[in-house]
Write a structure and sequence with these properties.
- Helix 2 packs across helix 3.
- It is built from 4 helices and 3 strands, in the order αβααββα.
- By secondary structure, the chain is an alpha+beta fold.
- The radius of gyration is 17 Å and the shape is flat.
C-alpha cells in the first residue's frame, strides 16, 4: 500500500512540475505538431494566446517563454464545438 501511495505522489509531483515548465517556440511547435514558423506567424501572435515571459539577461531580454499549463489550457479552450446530430 505504501509503495502505491509513493508512486501516486511521485506522479502528482511530476505532473505539477510539467505544468510549471516554461516552453519556447520549438516546444509549442512540437506540442501542436506545427512548424516553428507556423507557431510564430499564426499562433503566438494571437491576442488570445497566453502572454510570454521574458527573462532578463545582461544583454537585454532573452527569448520568449510560455508557461506550459497556460498553453495547454489555451489549446483546450479552442476545441471545436460539439456538433448536434
Amino acid at each position: 500500500m505504501r509503495t502505491i501511495l509513493l508512486e501516486i505522489l511521485n506522479e502528482l509531483k511530476a505532473h505539477r512540475a510539467a505544468n510549471n515548465e516554461l516552453w519556447n517556440v520549438d516546444d509549442i511547435a512540437s506540442y501542436l505538431r506545427l512548424s516553428r514558423s507556423s507557431v510564430q506567424s499564426r499562433v503566438i501572435c494571437r491576442k488570445d494566446f497566453p502572454r510570454a515571459v521574458r527573462i532578463p539577461t545582461d544583454n537585454g531580454l532573452g527569448g520568449r517563454r510560455f508557461y506550459a499549463k497556460e498553453v495547454k489550457s489555451w489549446v483546450a479552450n479552442n476545441r471545436e464545438p460539439v456538433r448536434s446530430s
